[in-house]
Amino acid sequence: MDFDLHFLEIDLLNNFEELIASIAVDDNEHRAVLGCYYAELVFEQFKLSDRIQDLEEAVEKAKWAELQAKNLEHSVYARILGVLGNILERRFQCMGQIEDLEEAIQVLRHAVEISSDNHLCLSYFLHSLGNKLGARYNHTEKIEDLEEVVQVSRQMVKATPNAHPSLPGGLSYLGHGLRLRYERIGMMDDLEEAVQVSRQAVNLTPDNHADLPSRLHTLGQALVMRCDSIGKMENLEEAIRMLRQALDMTAIDHPERVNRLNGLAIGLTKRHHRTGNMEDLKEAVQMSLETVVQMPNDHRNMTLLLASLGTHLSKLYRCIGLVEVLEMGIEVSRRAVEIATDDDCYLPLILRSLGNRLGDQYKHTQKIEDLEEAVKVSRQGLKATPNAHPNLPGGLSDLGNHLRTRYERIGMMDDFEEAIQVSRHAVNLMPNNHPDLASYLQNLSENLNRRYKDTGEIQDLEEAIRVSLQAVTVTAAPPLVRILGFVQAIELLQSQGNYGNAYTLSEEAIDLLPLVHNRSLSIQDQQYVVSFFFGMAADACSLALQVGQAPIKALELLERGRGVILSLLMDDRSDTSELRAVNPTLCEQYENLRLEIHRPFETAISSDTPKFMSERRQKAINDLEECLRAIRQLQGFSSFQKGPTAEQMKKASDKGNIIIVNVTVLRSDAIIISSSGIKSVHLPHLDTLQAQEWVNQDLTSVSQSNRGPKNKAYRQFLSWLWRGCVKTILTELNYPFQHAAENLSRVWWVGTGLASTFPFHAACDLSADPIESVSSYILSSYIPSVKALIHARERVLTTVPPSGKPQKMLIVTMAETPGAGNLSGVKAEASAVVGVLGSSVDVEILDQPDTKSVLRHIHQCDIAHFACHGVSDSNDPSKSGLLLQTATEKPSQDVLSVSKICENHLAQGQIAYLSACSTAENRAEHLMDEVLHVDVYGLPTTISVLTLRNRSIPNFAETVL
């Protein structure tokens, strides 16, 4: 520091009045310069102290200096005007008085006017004027202010020499203005230029420059918007990298940190919207909470931050269903409404957010007052929204949804007519390929279809179909939203009997699945994504057969669309010996990458932060996709890790036929795969309405009080299944009645659609004489898909131990389980197993183990035998598993879950014998197309045994072994 200058500044601050008095009254230049300098010093003092009296004094002295300088040389006067404008803008930021901002703009306009001959000064004042116009636009959202921001920013860039250090700042601000204008009027050229100039600004900024974080943030925001507009995921990935880098470079106490946190939170939420990745949404909520905590309660941006937090919490609630999350979202949204002023530019967004939260609450509580308030608040939001505002279509569409819901509750036709009217208005306001258009079209289509169902007006159905078909053409929409559109359109076309177009759409929809379901998602997130298109593959299969497609085509659609979670797990555990023989280097790269993407975070070294691990895993996923493309270029590997071909499926049936039973609302069929071909058998007597009725009865949930009636109903169900399905199939295949079990032919069953949980092996007619049953004709096994059977056989070939080497067996027993009933027969069961096997295997018994111990030992075993309780989680099947205990002084219940097993690569195992309740159940109706219970262990063969009486377990185990 220059100490002479430092003491001069102190002297000026302490003795300003005396110094001014010492200057001649007519020496306006020195008086003006000294006054301006003093105002700047006090302003800097305010920045350090936050004392409002310092800010007031800075304004007062800057205005005094401006009066002294009015008749001076232009460069001096312009500089003083610039200082005054900046101080006035800061007072507006602190106090919220729009008059201060208006005055700041006025004095900066004057500074620009008198600096036209000095390009460098002009550039500076244009930049300052642009900032203030931008601040006014943020406050008023008047399009003319935004237009002037862009115009002034262009002038500033034009007035700045190419090599001048202020050019990057001007480019960045121009990019910011162009992005905002795109949000308002939707001109794609604005957004493309915003990305271009913002990127140029970043590239021109040195790595250690103080403004680099700001420019990275501006570029990140533009890239987020570009992804929203054209649907390119790589834009969003780059945006999040830019936004995160900007945040990482921002000090904890920096005034812009809150805005950068909010920007990154928005980017992460948008990525969650496109991918279903829950970690993104959770991180967004955490960041949004931090913005609210850090921002002073009286700050003018607090309303926006609260509204953003409410939106993030709402999305989280819709994913995980925790009412506490919804209640918190409503609380922060109400708080935002309370503190918002009537002229707050964020008021429409805040009211819209609260209305949607109340709509969510109504769905949970079914309290009419929640719905009434949702309608009321949504109307208030629309009333506060200017006609050309970008949020207007969304507000209209939301109101339409609330009105339709109220119509469904109380039946007022006026509500429904208005719902259609506002939904149509929302659609008409949107550009053709805007990402949000798809959702608004879907809402309108749903309203029209509902009116058709209530009134029978065929025009409504026809328009609903036209609108839904338009929705699936919005390529910029998130893939998950597009898939919902496909599902809606297919259902409408089916209701019209237009099966040809419905089939075409079903093919397109299944082609979209890889875009929304990939390795970057955890199993929980994959389940969330899969729930959006539950049943779609089964419907596609039925449609293919309905329009006369070959059975192999129907089967291919079924294989591609069902079991997609399991399919990825199998791909990442499949045999690679053929690839290794052709290209060892590529094979090793592939194996290393698939191990990397499944490495649990907790195994990372301490320096690997979760964020770093996430980025590392994402890179491995991208590298794996590149590696797969390279492998598929090799001769003979074009179908590597894709669905099985017709020849592969026929080969898989060489040990017995594979029978797929597909039941949908359209029709019921069996597709039979044999070594000689693939054919279909229509099952007209397997009535879909009756099938749905049987499924709804939940016949497997038995208590002591209802066991008799349930057993009687179950026998009726098995008889219906025999007559309408299994007997027809067995007759078609000419299976003879067998008197000896060893003569039974092997069959693998796959149930899909409504038949996903049907017990084909138990189908029988007890009223016939003699009794007819499946077990008299065939020996039944179940597979989730043909691909799963092929994968299991590959695993058997690669995991069989060398000749002469004894197999290793792990037996886990839980006679006592915290929080569950005792199982007195499990130790006898273990003894029976050991007695039968003798010295043919090396047996290790873990009695009352904890989860981590089992995971350590299971890696070394060929056979795993579990005698314990099991649990099936209907909300999250990946949490289903086997009940063990914790390794604590007072053990508590712990679950060896599917998700924990899937994090481990069980390269050696062959058989899992699960003697536990719930091990063969999947109670998640929205995930019936997935096999997410305990046979996803990565073991080729799983035997799941459900028993009600402990004394039967040892004998059964001996019989099986």
From TrEMBL:
SUPFAM superfamilies: TPR-like
Entry keyword set: Coiled coil
Coiled-coil annotated spans: 55-118
UniProt xrefs under InterPro entries: CHAT_dom, Matrix_HIV/RSV_N, TPR-like_helical_dom_sf
Pfam families: CHAT
The keyword Zinc is assigned to this record: no
CHAT domain sequence ranges: 717-925
Name listed for the protein in its UniProt record: CHAT domain-containing protein
Organism: Penicillium arizonense
